[in-house]
Amino acid sequence: MNLDVTSIRAQYPAFSDDSVWLDAPAGTQMPQSVIDAIADAYRAGIGNLHGAFPASARSDAIVAEARQAVADLVGGSPDGVVFGPNMTTLTYRFAATLAKTWGPGDEIVLSTLDHDANLRPWVQAAEAAGATVRYAELEVPSGELPAEQYRHLVGPRTRLVAVTAASNILGTMPDLPRIAEITRAAGALLFVDGVHATPHMPVDMVALGADFWATSAYKWNAPHVGAIVAAPALLAELHPDKLLPSPETGPERFETGTLPLADLAGVRAAVDYLAGLDPTAEGSRRERLLLSMAAVREYEQGELAHLLQGLAALPAVRRIGAPARSTATVYFTVDGRTPQQVAEYLAGRKINAWYGHSYCWEATAALGIRDQGSAVRVGIYHYTSRSDTDRLLAALAELAS
């Protein structure tokens, strides 16, 4: 493992206030290099795309570099990177586009583990097309999503399977290659919500079997930009609603309006930052990303083990779900306190943590906690220090006593 967390933390201006940042599943902080890249784009001057003057050419270069950066991050092609304001908006767009070819008798398969952004757009598109929705069920109380159930859900009329690569509340990481194998055998497409997984592991969307990989840049140190990545040949088969003057080819025809150009400069800088987390990594940016993100995974899993050991020593703290393979994300309750009360208590001690359903609407219902305020969520990120987790454990011990 080659992460120097002290050096990493020194790159974050936000860390000057002594807060404990355990809210990363809802969005991460920006290192100085990303902040500088955004400011530099504005300082240099940017114009709208495809013009004849230098500021426009700078914008064209920013977009091209951002597409290449995201492609390097997830193992896709830059010509298959579609940008948008967020993953939810993009998923609605792709759902509406794909559903143009659906009709009565067609089926889509979703999961009750997923964030609602990978459920509701597909449900609504299927209803409009007259297609049938089937569900893979979250296993209670483990929080697992057994892959073999897809053998009974996916069939000759299945057009699409949508599933998360990691739950943003439980951390559960389903067996994507197995789900992809079943999906592919039926001739269906696999849409993977990679929003929570991408910041915590090396990603190879092709090896994982994803036809579409969705990610949100603000979950990995960049501004609020969403992206969906697919093979260019697959995108070429789709026909989104668009303005008549908009491009007829490439990812641009899926992008409505003007892109956030300076923010895309931050996206490229964030990918460069991630590629440099392991200072010993060499090779192309893609190669350095794979090594750095493997180091991230190892570090975060070590800190997760420490946190879980500490929580297990607190009888009043109850973890929700216990998946065998997960991101370093923990969902829990404290006896005698509502999740909101716990989060407010932690906030009073400068510990940032979220509470509530976190848009996992079906999952929290299946777990039987949604109507009770759900639970408290903390997430370990590669900038989380041991002292951060120990401050959380100390605060929870104090609260429970």
UniProtKB/TrEMBL annotation:
Protein name listed in UniProt: Cysteine desulfurase-like protein
Sequence ranges assigned to domain Aminotransferase class V in this UniProt record: 20-392
Matches recorded under InterPro entries: Aminotrans_V_dom, Cys_dSase-rel, PyrdxlP-dep_Trfase, PyrdxlP-dep_Trfase_major, PyrdxlP-dep_Trfase_small
SUPFAM superfamilies cross-referenced by the UniProt entry: PLP-dependent transferases
One Pfam family in the UniProt entry: Aminotran_5
Transmembrane segments: none
